[in-house]
Amino acid sequence: MPRLGLLAHPAVASAVARELGRAIEYHERIASTQERARALAAAGADRCVVVADEQERGQGTHGRDWHAAAGSSLLASWLFRPAPLAPALFAALSGVAVARALDAQGCTGASLKWPNDVELEGRKVAGALAHGTSDGSGGVLVIGIGINVHQRRADFPADLRDRATSLAMAGHDLDRLALLARLTAELDRLEHPEERERALAEWRDRATLFGQVVRVRVPGREPFTGTATAIDDEGALVVLT
Fold it and tell me: Could you give the CA distance from residue 66 to residue 102 in angstroms, rounded to a whole number?
């Protein structure tokens, strides 16, 4: 059994939860860890992480769904209550947390593509999706992250094979449970205000989009093109038109 599957055993999950400082809910198969974490938040859950071995309807940008086969990826959603200060910036910096976690596991050189992609050698290896809600106790933020770990090129849909990669394809055989633990620590580290400036500087150092012409789609107006020049202190992309 892959080590991540050990979380199905209550004693193991309890021990790992103590180490991470978060409750863990593990699923062999689930539609979406993001949807489940949102449901837990609506029910009043505190800090926790929802983890799955297989995800049937993972959520991406622009409402895209995808299926992540069993054993292929690290699939998890972290619930933060109260929501971190500047949640939009926190969501953007989650890519830094992924890159740092990969560095710690010996997979160096990850770059970041605004707003939520992590790349290796110019191909997407991970993505993040954030969803925030307001309430009377500081709000809630859910960060869902998927990392391609064990896929081979043929495992990706034909239209993604030239744009996606996995840790295995990049020559790294990483353990998903160890990666989960390190990534959780890196995300929690971002909650400290003094860490934000360092993480933002690192985001800018790892960014690949600056200087490139981009096409921007904003609800309620016509798309436009411009040159990506920076990311501001709130996590927004600055585009020169």
Answer: 23
